[in-house]
Specification:
elongated, binds adenosine-5'-triphosphate, ABC_transporter-like_CS, binds magnesium ion, 2 domains, Rossmann fold, Piso0_005908 protein, AAA+_ATPase, alpha/beta, 4-stranded antiparallel sheet, nucleotide-binding
Length: about 625
């Protein structure tokens, strides 16, 4: 049986004796996060995963979905689809996961969010529109379908609506298995019931398997589930049908009072976290509850063999039904299937480009704030270095202006970090759900950034070039734009690389700021290459993108310009024009130790450095995916 293609029909999802323990440190004892947890589900069934906070619900969902689990732990047990061990790629193909925390793109509307996920999942255009509208409607988001999710600067939909949108954007791809971590958190009881009813309806209609961790459902919500697993401290207290819960706990000696919410009663029974204390009576309560919990663990453990035989009976029945499931393997998720990998990637890049384009138009933080900032910077620079003439006293200020524009422009690429991290967190979620990989993500990110970075370079150059009075030449102006553009692309590529190393705002900000400080220091302006010590000269000086930008700008400005010496014909730099009381700009370049103007080579090196940063980011993301 081929379990590695998308055409696998999930007939049974089963997990057996899942145990996970971690070593917290050298001195700490081994901690058991999950202990022999088992269960199984058939298409159309919806299971609630319940237990006190910290009982291991998210950990179990992560293991079942082949998501990240503690690397310093030992994991045992099996996760099977149709009796075959699952692989990460198979689970990616057949399942979707709605995480406990929402990670949505703030500048997209509700409809766009669902629609882009449907496109990335390959839902054909012919019925995508209808499917998207139906999914939005069924999650009660119809009135908000045109409203933006919201960014830190722009208020959007509410927290509960975001939760429902996260569910909608995963349900739209109609996965065979849907993992939901706390889908009802932030929802009131009516909305919770609506959402779970809708999930149950879709699960039945689409033969979907749903595993859903949930806190304190009301009785009516609890009754909607087919099955339930109660965990406490990572161990099973009960797993089976919802209908049998009352009987089981009654037979175990813990009868659930009539008119009592069964799930609430059981959760209270198995939650001992808040009974801990130092006062004598609290200790008693804790001990009492621990005894009850241990008793429930034991009773459940003793019941296991009979469950195993029940499972075998089920299997037997299926075989007698003609074993139809074994042959019927072709489940085709409604998607466009590209045989050619290249075409598939191109299609994904195209969709991601459209998504980023919307974001770039609407997200103030991503682009507009940066444009205003760069414009402000250009005006500030233009007014400080205002209309400098050809006097030799202005040679140093011109050099400073070139250094400042190149170095500060790169430094300010840190402003892109928040927008990139938002994209990164939706990439992580989408990648884990099998929608697209690091190549499509980074390529679309690169392409969408180019016109924007070019626009910034142009705006900045128009203001500063003429206000500062750089060399009067159209070619000189366009070279200035080119160096700034390459500078910005390299700076942004480096910023993205830093975010890929540590996808955390404070850490990536610190790393990027540090790296920019380093490139400024060793670029040959603050300390000329003639003086720079051998360590820095033979290492970082050669891979400093700011150095090539600064050199390029220096040659562009000084190689064809002539300056006046002072009124007594004293010249700061000695050049062949000294007899005319002038300084040839080349003398300034020689003084800094520069040889020839190798603009092609330097631009080439910058492109290579950009490529290396992008490749580094790709490798990091690939390793992590
Ligand atoms: N990477 C990790 N390293 C160490 N301990 C961990 C790790 N991940 C989870 N844990 C521990 O495992 C236990 C279960 O965590 P988990 O997040 O699965 O709980 P939960 O049932 O989902 O809780 P909640 O209802 O609050 O979301 C907790 O005690 C948690 O501290
Ligand atoms: Mg959790």
């Amino acid at each position: 049986m081929n379990t590695t293609t998308r055409q696998t029909k999930v007939k049974e999802f089963l997990w057996k004796d899942i145990s996970l323990s971690i070593e917290p440190g050298k001195k700490g004892a081994k901690k058991c996060l999950l202990d022999n947890v088992s269960g199984s589900l058939k298409p159309g069934e919806i299971m609630a995963l319940m237990g006190p906070s910290g009982s291991g619900k998210t950990t179990l969902l992560n293991i079942l979905a082949h998501r990240k689990v503690p690397t310093h732990g030992s994991l045992d047990g099996e996760v099977l689809i149709n009796n075959n061990p699952t692989t990460r790629s198979l689970i990616k193909e057949v399942s979707a996961y709605v995480e406990q925390e929402d990670s949505l793109i703030g500048s997209l509307t509700v409809r766009e969010t669902v629609d882009f996920n449907a496109r990335l999942a390959g839902i054909p255009k012919a019925y995508r529109h209808e499917l998207v509208e139906e999914t939005i409607r069924s999650l009660g988001l119809k009135d908000q379908s045109g409203v933006q999710v919201g960014t830190p600067l722009q208020k959007g939909i509410s927290g509960g609506q975001k939760r429902r949108l996260s569910i909608a954007s995963q349900m739209v791809s109609k996965p065979s298995i849907l993992f939901l971590d706390e889908p009802t958190s932030g929802l009131d009881s009516v909305a919770s019931k609506e959402v779970i009813s809708m999930i149950k309806r879709v699960a039945e209609e689409e033969n979907m398997i749903v595993i859903c961790s949930i806190h304190q459902p009301s009785t009516s919500v609890f009754q909607l589930f087919d099955k339930v697993t109660f965990l406490s401290k990572g161990k099973m207290v009960y797993a089976g049908t919802v209908n049998d819960v009352v009987d089981y706990f009654g037979s175990a000696g813990y009868s659930i009072p009539v008119h009592y919410n069964p799930s609430e009663y059981i959760l209270d029974l198995i939650n001992i976290d808040f009974s801990t204390g130092t006062e004598g009576c609290q200790d008693d309560e804790y001990n009492q509850k621990e005894l009850v919990l241990n008793d429930l663990f034991e009773k459940w453990d003793n019941r296991r063999p009979s469950l195993t035989s029940e499972a075998k009976e089920d299997e037997q029945e299926e075989k007698q039904d003609g074993g139809a499931l074994a042959e019927e393997e072709t489940y085709v998720r409604p998607c466009i299937r590209f045989k050619n990998y290249f075409l598939k990637e191109c299609n994904r890049i195209n969709i991601l480009l459209k998504r980023s384009l919307i974001k770039s138009r609407r997200d103030l933080l991503a682009y507009y704030v940066r444009i205003v900032m760069y414009l402000g910077l250009a005006i500030m620079m233009g007014t400080v270095w205002l209309r400098l003439d050809n006097d030799q006293d202005n040679i140093q200020p011109f050099m400073n202006a070139l250094f400042f524009s190149g170095a500060f422009m790169s430094f300010m690429s840190v402003a892109y970090i928040p927008a990139f991290l938002e994209d990164y967190s939706s990439y992580v979620k989408d990648n884990a759900n099998g929608l697209y990989g690091p190549f499509a993500f980074l390529t679309s990110n690169f392409i969408i950034g180019l016109p924007f970075l070019f626009a910034i370079s142009l705006i900045f150059s128009i203001v500063t070039y003429f206000m500062c009075n750089f060399r009067h030449s159209a070619i000189g102006f366009w070279y200035y734009v080119m160096w700034l553009f390459l500078d910005l692309v390299a700076a942004e590529s480096m910023t993205i690389f830093m975010c890929s190393v540590f996808p955390n705002f404070v850490v990536s900000l610190s790393l990027t700021a540090f790296a920019n400080g380093l490139w400024m220091s060793v670029g040959g302006f603050l300390v000329s290459q003639k003086v720079l010590n051998v360590f820095w000269y033979y290492t970082f000086y050669w891979i400093d993108y700011q150095r090539y930008v600064f050199q390029g700008m220096m040659f562009n400005e000084f190689s064809e310009r002539v300056y006046r010496c002072n009124s007594e014909c004293y010249c700061m730099y000695n050049s062949p024009l000294a007899s005319q009381c002038k300084i040839a700009g080349n003398a300034v370049l020689q003084n800094l130790g520069y040889g020839e103007y190798k603009k092609g080579l330097w631009a080439g090196i910058l492109i290579v450095l950009i490529f290396v940063y992008r490749l580094g980011s790709y490798i990091l993301l690939k390793l992590r995916s």
